[in-house]
Every structure is written in C-alpha cells, then in structure tokens.
C-alpha cells in the first residue's frame, strides 16, 4: 500500500560519504513508496539537492571550525555534531508550517541527538544502522570488555579470540584511536543505546547476518527491526557521490579481458603514506595484473594527488594500469572485466562488492572495517585479508593468489554463490523485499 504523498519522513544523515549514501538511498526507496522526503543536513559535506529534485533539503549550521574538520578526529567531530545540531534541528522542524504531516524522523545511529529532538516534538523516530550487525555486536563487546577490565588490551593479546565473539581477535575490534578513549567510549555508548526509538532499519541481509541480527535484538531492546539491504539495489539510480566520478575508466575497462582487472580503492576517508604507496605500487606492478586504482586527492600524506608515486612506476605499468581520482564504483564493480577488489572494507563498498559477486583483498584501515574484513575472509570466505605491514612481495603474492591461482577461483565461486543469495533477498518475495513492505506498513501505522 502506497501512502498519500502527504506522509513526510525527515531523514538525518551523518555528513560523511559512507553515511550519506545509504540515507539518500533510503530516501529514494521511501519516496518510491509514496512518502515525501525532507533531508536535514549540515553544511559540512552537503549533498547536491539538484541530484534529488523530489526531495526537500533543509540545511542546518553545525558550527564546526576549519581546524576541527581538518583534524580528522572523527570521534570528536561526531560528538560536536551531536552537541551543536540539536537546537538547529529542533528549530528547523518547529519552523515548518505543517509539522503534523511528519510521519517520523529517521536518523543515522551516529546522529543520536535526533532522537531527543523527536521526543521533544512528539514525533516517532527510527534508527538507521549504516553498518553491519557484526560491527554493532563488536561495539557492544568493546563496552562490555572495558567494564570487565580487558580493554585496553596488551599487544600480546592481539591475536586472542574475543570472549563471546570468537570470530574476532582482539586486534579486529573497532577501537578508534582518534581523540581520547573517554570520548570514544562516550560515542560508542550513545550510538549503541537506542532509548526510545520505535524501530531499527538495517542495511544488511538475512543471508549474510541473520543469526547476528537475532543476537543483537536479544541484547538490545525488543523493538522491530527491518533488514532491507542492500539498499543500493532498491535505489539503483540514486546518485550520492560527493566527489566527481571519472567515467573514463569504464572505457579503459572495456578494453580489458573478463575478470582480469583488480580494482583498488580505500574509500572516502582512509589515507596512506608515501612508504605504503610505494609498496602498493611495486606490488601491483610486479603482479603483472591489470589494475584500476582510485587515489583520492589528499589521501597520500603530504601529496596533492599522485606526485609521490615512485619513479619509473608509470612507465613500468604503461597501459596495464589506470589511475583515477574517484570512480563510478558501482558501475566498475558490475563491469565484466573486474575480477577482484582490493578494498578497505567500508560497509557500502562491501555490500556493493558482494552484490556483484566480486572477490576481495581486504585491507581494513579503521573502525568497523576490521570487523568486516574478518567476516569477508573467515566467515563468508569471499576474500583474502592482507595483514601486517604492506610489503611489495606479499602484495604481489596476494594479488596473484586471488586473480590467477586456483585458490582465487574457489573464492570467486563462493562470491558468485553469495551474489545469488543476495539477489534472492532483494527480489520480489525475498527477505529484504518483504521487510521493506513491512517497514512501510509500520511507518503508516
Ligand atoms: C566510512 C567508514 O570508513 C566505514 O567503515 C563505514 O562502514 C562507513 O563510513 P567509507 O570510507 O566512506 O566508509 O567507505 P564505504 O562505506 O565503502 O563508502 C564509500 C562509498 O564511496 C561507496 O558507496 C563507494 O561506492 C563510493 N566510492 C568510493 C565511489 O563512488 N567512488 C570511488 O572511487 C570510491
């Protein structure tokens, strides 16, 4: 049942690429189901309203200084957003002429101040979890281990299994080293604890995480959960990229053999240094595999773009390599020439990769990426994890293991099987498809 277009949903995304995308996808999905959509967004990393002419965009000032934004201390930035956006969001909603038409507020779990505003204005709220169920459970585990005195843990324990979560080793726990530990634990406690929201939306799938979703529901309040991933498959035309995509790489991909290209991207936030860059470059060159490499401007410390690539590298790889600043990633992953993805295991990238059946080389950088890398390599077994310091011989070896050796073939087969299971989830009658219908009914009830 589609609602009359008067039911309005207010969406509050967290202003980072990996969080804006799923929220805009959710907006598109709900708009297609008949809801009117208002996006309340900060000026920081503001999305382009022209890409979403059907949405109403309301911008609120977040009051972050240039230094705060440039600090890369994500924990403190998110804490500050929660302190400084509460009143602006409240005022923005109060000023609306017809507040009564707001069905609910859906907020990113990092923007937990929205729940307080919703309560104050007597509007129901729903949380959107933009990462995996495994990552939420790992965060709950951190809080418990801290209370039990296991954290901080000594180096000697880094390979030990986490009590109660044996898939993970202590080193896989998403402990952030930005800012002070107190601030990190404060943020974690807030994002894990849903006090009064009426439901949770998950961008994941039963075929990946059903038992973990049940476990998290047992550990948290028994409110309804709606598992509707992978959301990008329900909203294929939704464009949410903050950076300009360079589509010339698709022409380059068209010239390559099927399954031959390794695609490399470390997402929208991770960075690297010159030494690691050199090891990556020579590892790729020595692997002899064609590669498409996204190097985001500013992602190599001390460089604007690729001026610190090692001397002789470009000449050595010639036409075998293609480097861009930002790629149309979903199109790249769906391209028949792409046979592997060296990824940082951000959750969106992981869902996009699984949806196309592409096997992975996992090189997580921080936060939930470590948890996801462990699940990709050891639970779903659709990738190889590159651990330890980056070293060219090891990189060459792992690239060849994935792209040319029999081991890689087996991994590819599992990735293709998982792709089919994911398709079953989002096609008519599948678990995500049904869950989405139930979400719409729930929102209207
Ligand atoms: C951040 C966190 O690092 C991650 O762990 C968390 O799960 C979400 O937020 P991010 O670095 O943004 O992740 O990675 P990811 O979640 O994978 O999102 C990146 C998005 O950018 C993907 O949707 C991807 O398709 C897109 N992208 C990336 C491009 O469109 N082009 C590119 O060249 C690279």
Structure characterization notes:
This protein is of the alpha/beta class and 445 residues long. The protein has 18 helices and 15 strands. Helix content is 44%, strand content 15%. It has a seven-stranded parallel beta sheet with strand order 3-2-1-4-5-8-9, with helices on both faces. A six-stranded parallel beta sheet has the order 12-11-10-13-14-15, sandwiched between helices. It has a two-stranded antiparallel ribbon with strand order 6-7. Helix 15 (368-379) links the parallel strand 14 and strand 15 (383-385). Residues 16-19, 21, 131, 241, 265, 267-270, 294, 326-327, 329-330, 346-349, 352, 367-369 line the site of uridine-5'-diphosphate-xylopyranose (UDX). Belongs to the UDP-glycosyltransferase family. InterPro entries: UDP_glucos_trans.
């Amino acid at each position: 049942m589609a609602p009359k277009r008067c039911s309005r949903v207010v969406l509050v995304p967290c202003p980072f690429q990996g969080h804006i995308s799923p929220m805009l996808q959710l907006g598109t999905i709900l708009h297609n189901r008949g809801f009117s959509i208002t996006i309340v967004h900060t000026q920081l990393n503001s999305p382009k309203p022209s890409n979403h002419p059907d949405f109403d965009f309301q911008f609120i000032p977040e009051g972050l200084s240039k230094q705060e934004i440039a600090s890369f201390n994500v924990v403190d930035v998110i804490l500050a957003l929660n302190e400084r956006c509460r009143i602006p969001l409240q005022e923005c909603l109060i000023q609306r002429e017809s507040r009564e038409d707001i069905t609910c507020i859906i907020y990113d779990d990092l923007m937990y101040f929205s729940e307080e505003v919703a309560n104050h204005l007597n509007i129901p709220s729903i949380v959107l979890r933009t990462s995996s169920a495994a990552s939420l459970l790992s965060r709950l585990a951190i809080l418990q281990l801290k209370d039990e005195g296991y954290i901080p843990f000594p180096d000697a324990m880094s390979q030990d299994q986490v009590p109660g979560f044996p898939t993970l080793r202590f080193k896989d726990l998403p402990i952030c080293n930005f800012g002070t530990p107190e601030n990190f634990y404060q943020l974690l406690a807030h994002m894990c604890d849903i006090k009064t929201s009426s439901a949770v939306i998950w961008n994941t799938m039963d075929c990946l995480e059903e038992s973990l979703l049940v476990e998290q529901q047992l550990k948290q309040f028994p409110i309804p959960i709606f598992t509707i991933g992978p959301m990008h498959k329900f909203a294929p035309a939704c464009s949410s990229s903050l950076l300009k995509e360079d589509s010339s790489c698709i022409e380059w991909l068209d010239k390559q053999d099927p399954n031959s290209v390794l695609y490399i991207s470390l997402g929208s936030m991770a960075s690297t240094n010159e030494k690691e860059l050199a090891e990556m470059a020579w590892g790729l060159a020595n692997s002899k595999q064609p590669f498409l490499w996204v190097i985001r401007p500013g992602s190599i410390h001390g460089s604007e773009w690729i001026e610190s690539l090692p001397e002789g590298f470009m000449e050595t790889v010639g036409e075998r390599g293609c480097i861009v600043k930002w790629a149309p990633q979903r199109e790249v992953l769906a391209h028949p020439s792409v046979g592997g993805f060296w990824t940082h295991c951000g959750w969106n990238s992981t869902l996009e990769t699984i949806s196309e059946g592409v096997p992975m080389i996992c090189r997580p950088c921080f936060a939930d990426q470590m948890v996801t890398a462990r699940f990709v390599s050891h639970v779903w077994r659709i990738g190889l994890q590159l651990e330890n310091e980056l070293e060219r011989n090891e990189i060459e070896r792992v690239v060849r293991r994935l792209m040319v050796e029999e081991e890689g073939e087996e991994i590819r087969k599992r990735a293709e099987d998982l792709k089919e299971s994911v398709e079953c989830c989002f096609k008519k009658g599948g678990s995500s498809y049904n869950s989405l219908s139930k979400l719409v009914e729930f929102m209207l009830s």
